Automatic annotation (TrEMBL):
Organism of origin: Parafrankia soli
Cofactor: pyridoxal 5'-phosphate
Taxonomic classification: Bacteria, Bacillati, Actinomycetota, Actinomycetes, Frankiales
Gene Ontology MF terms in the entry: glycine hydroxymethyltransferase activity; methyltransferase activity; protein homodimerization activity; pyridoxal phosphate binding
GO term, biological process aspect, one: tetrahydrofolate interconversion
Keyword field: Amino-acid biosynthesis, Cytoplasm, Methyltransferase, One-carbon metabolism, Pyridoxal phosphate, Transferase
Protein name: Serine hydroxymethyltransferase
Site (Plays an important role in substrate specificity): 230
Length: 420
């Protein structure tokens, strides 16, 4: 059952209590390969569900607009100090509600409506808030989008530099949501310096890998860093903005009062707990094991004939083009979900299909590594994925059902935080 136990919730609202319990069981029984998901510790769960949710705290520690902050101020200060220590930054703001508001704060801090901003295009692996058309950031600002090379699937920094010199963006984003390779922070920094732009490293997907020393850090290259606190960092659903001292005041004003009112204090406490966990040797080992699992899974999938964008991975994320398998990403993802393997359908670079029915799938190894799976299990996962994708094309529900049972048997041997 769910841990911490939800006796009061179940008694007060059996319908919601039952659904939460069902979700906990679903997470326990499935192989969760969605690259933006993870399992938080029971300690993080407890902080997230604490009485801190009762308190309103507009402002910053020592400068609040409400009284009764004697406990809240030390909690937020702990979270700030732990973020600064873990990532080696001069300043941290732990109040953004999620990654998109964190990125919006960057726009409010450094841009005026209509100003040019450069980011990776969404079809190439970028994020909506990096200036893409359907986002407010692409409607209120002039998005300049770089992509990847068709032959390698990797960013071409010569193209980035040419676009930057031509358009003179005031902000350049590096990072994204479907980038399986190491981000060249020094290369982006050199381009930003050349045109006097603010380089923003969006490390939402790789923050935990950076904290654990499994990916190079943008600190010293990007003066502004945004990140969510879940994904590989294994914290609650929240976000942070980190920066050098020179950009701190503008960013703080953009978060509050620019975009938000009171912070979510229960989330701030849970972020602090996660940051403390991420500073341990165990977490460092975890971060490196995430990458080892991803590399092993990528190798096993490639060995079974899957077309991996960039040919593999350097981090937790794998992007697969299913065109050669004769199955689109959406039906493949739905079949895999029925088979007990959870991932998401995803656009691939130069995808001829529409975004809601794309050619690819995206997967990551952060959550299964938390559960305890290791590289030796990755060939088994690749075999199940191979079988399920073929079954999706053949409408073979018997095979999908068999795989789901085998997945449940495997995962029953690996404990899950939040389930006993």
């Amino acid at each position: 059952m769910h841990e911490p136990a939800m006796t009061h919730l179940t008694a007060a609202d059996p319908e919601i209590g039952g659904l939460v319990e069902a979700e906990a069981r679903r997470q326990y029984e499935k192989i969760r390969l969605i690259a933006s998901e993870n399992y938080v510790s029971t300690a993080v769960l407890e902080a997230s569900g604490s009485v801190l949710t009762n308190k309103y705290s507009e402002g910053y520690p020592g400068k609040r607009y409400y009284e009764g902050q004697q406990v809240i101020d030390p909690i937020e200060t702990l979270a700030i100090d732990r973020a600064k220590s873990l990532f080696g930054v001069e300043h941290a703001n732990v109040q953004p509600y999620s990654g998109s508001p964190a990125n919006l704060a960057v726009y409010l801090a450094f841009l005026q409506p209509g100003d040019p901003v450069m980011g990776m295009g969404l079809p190439s692996g970028g994020h909506l808030t990096h200036g893409w058309t359907v986002s407010a950031t692409g409607r209120w600002f002039r998005g300049v989008r770089y992509g990847v090379r068709q032959d390698t699937g990797r960013v071409d920094l010569d193209e980035v530099r040419d676009l930057a010199l031509e358009n003179r963006p005031k902000v350049i984003f590096c990072g994204g949501t479907a980038i399986p390779r190491t981000i060249d922070f020094p290369g982006f920094a050199a381009i930003a310096r050349e045109i006097d732009a603010v380089l923003v490293a969006d490390i939402s997907h790789i923050a935990g890998l950076i904290a654990g020393g499994a990916h190079p850090s943008p600190v010293g290259h990007a003066p502004v860093i945004t990140t969510t606190t879940h994904k590989t960092l294994r914290g609650p659903r929240g976000a942070m903005i980190m920066s050098d001292a020179a950009h701190a005041t503008a960013l703080d004003k953009a978060v509050f009062p620019g975009l938000q009112g009171g912070p979510h204090n229960h989330t701030t406490a849970a972020v602090a707990v996660a940051l403390r966990e991420a500073a341990t040797p165990d977490f460092r080992e975890y971060a490196h094991r995430v990458v080892a699992n991803a590399k092993a899974l990528a190798e096993a999938l490639s060995g079974r004939g899957f077309d991996l964008i960039t040919g593999g991975t350097d981090n937790h994320l794998i992007l697969i083009d299913l065109t050669s398998r004769g199955v689109a990403g959406k039906p493949a993802a739905k079949a895999l979900d029925r088979a007990g393997i959870e991932l998401n359908y995803n656009t691939v670079p130069f995808d001829p299909r529409k975004p809601f029915d794309p050619s690819g799938v995206r997967l990551g190894t952060a959550a299964i590594t938390t559960r305890g799976l290791r590289p030796e299990q990755m060939p088994t996962l690749a075999a199940w994925i191979d079988e399920a994708v073929k079954a999706a094309g053949d409408a073979d529900e018997a095979t999908i059902e068999r795989i789901a049972g085998e997945v449940r048997d495997l995962m029953s041997a690996y404990p899950m935080p939040g389930w006993v």
